[in-house]
Amino acid sequence: MCRFRAKTAEEGGKGMYRFGAKKRVMIVALCLLSTLLSVQAFAGGAGETAGSNHFTLYYPEMTTPINLDGVVTQEVMKASGIVWDKVEIGTGADVTQQVNLKLAGGALSDAITMSGGNVLWALLINQKKLIPLDKYFNDPTNYPNLAKIDKRTIDFWRASDGHIYFVPVQYEPVLEEPSAWQGNCMGLWVRDDTLTMAGTTSDGIKTLSGFESYLTKLNGMTDSKGRKIIPLSLGGENFAGLYLVMSMFGVVGGTQGGWNELADGTVVQDYQTAGFKQAWQWLNKMYRGGMLDQETPTQKNDLYLEKLNSLRYAALLFGGWDFPNAYVAKEHGIDSATTYATLAKQGFPEDWYNPTYLPHDPGVKLAQFANYNPFGGNGTGVTTSCKNPDKLMKGLDWMQTQEAYRLMEWGPESLGNFTLNNGVAEQHNDSFLSLNFWGGTTPMKNVTEKGFWWWKNVASVGLTHIPFLEPPWGTNGGVYQAEQINHEQGVFGLISKANRIRPVVGGAVEKYTPVQNDIRLQYYAKMMMAATSSDFDAAYNAFKNEMQVRGHDAETIAEFNGLYRNYSNTPAGKITITIRRYIPRNVFGDGPVIVGR
Predict the structure, then answer these.
(1) pLDDT interval class at 451 (50, 70, 90)
(2) Which residue, of 189, 213, 401, 570, has the greatest Cβ tally within 10 A?
(3) CA atoms of 366 and 111, how far apart (whole Å)
């Protein structure tokens, strides 16, 4: 502080410095300024210390805004020790363009959340916009929860330079003990009454010939309510269920293709296998014969859903979601609260859709299409703009705990959405699903206002080993059965190496894949609708030529094989998992059961 006292005339004298009035005013002013600057410096220092737990977040793939004043968000920030001053979300437009604009503007947030497989991570790494986070996963003293993450999960997400640049989100805490419910309910679903109408059973349609016979017999028939039956659906728009037909012929493929590993360790695109042409010949045969929905090549999803919910289809080759049993239940006056166990005991309605085995010829090994990915979906990285990465990572460390998951899912216990008894969470639907919290006519509005659930996309562990009291499943229990069938058929497994490859930014795969996808959709329709076998061959040959010339497939295949070989030699490419057990879910119970142990 500046200490100043003007000398009086009596104190002054010969040889003493005497101040005039004007000079005294100037010195007072200077001292006041000095004092003010000192106070500001002190306040700034204090503010810097107090504000060191304040951060900003960018989540370009998210379009639902979050209310930072929401009660749950406030509790998450308090418990984690980090305060989010600003959360910027995406616009719904091209994410690459959004991120490039941010980079051009030089205004990156302290943290960024994106899907783990997004090629933009490589872009950010190449431009040195991210901090390597390796040390935080190897420091159990200061970051115990990050250090507990299985090193195979860390290896899975390592960049090509050997570093890990983001915290995985919603990974399996115990890789050998995943949930028995992964959501892989895709496959063949068949309406019970149509089997009877065709004079067969679910066992009778396990072979391709048996399935064809079933579809042929239904062609032109109507059900007991006078609805014209469409024998087979391939799902919604853009040939949604194509990957299932490809699997029937031993090929990994789909709307956007797929990579198939050969015996010599190389990989080829689906259309370079014999099974690809056979699959399309079969689809063309089904289409020409009237067994396959005639609007498949052109329909939009809303038209498909209209037919699905009108119970027009006999058999469905689709992803398992939007399945029509809710409409079957409604037709039969079955209460939505009816448990699956009760429904099974009293008998399913005759027009109920049940999952069954995917048909294929003897000697054909079904291709895997149901993937187990225990390594998480999103990732949250720390940018070089962050002034206090240690503090931010401390907050992300806390968000890996069971306490954090419960808080982000239900909010604080005082809200009444759940009760914790001996480490087991019991959800109270009367509060959690009420109009005041999750429910209401615009549920996402409530989610936004309360600020819950959303944070699990930024940082959390998976639910599998978090004990909770699960009520018995309702009428959607068939989806669980479908996944079990996929296990039995051998089409369920760890996500393949080919599906883990992240394209090089600016490389041939990234550049030409969109072009190839356009070619596929164009020629898929032509192959399906071909009037004769010769027309089909002409469309198939033109397709292959287009992929070669316009799709530059030689370049993409060569580059992808190089990436595949390199990846196979990395720690991530050598990951193996041997499942000890699948944590069961309460699908067939009569009452609540503790799961997650």
Answers:
(1) confident
(2) 189
(3) 42
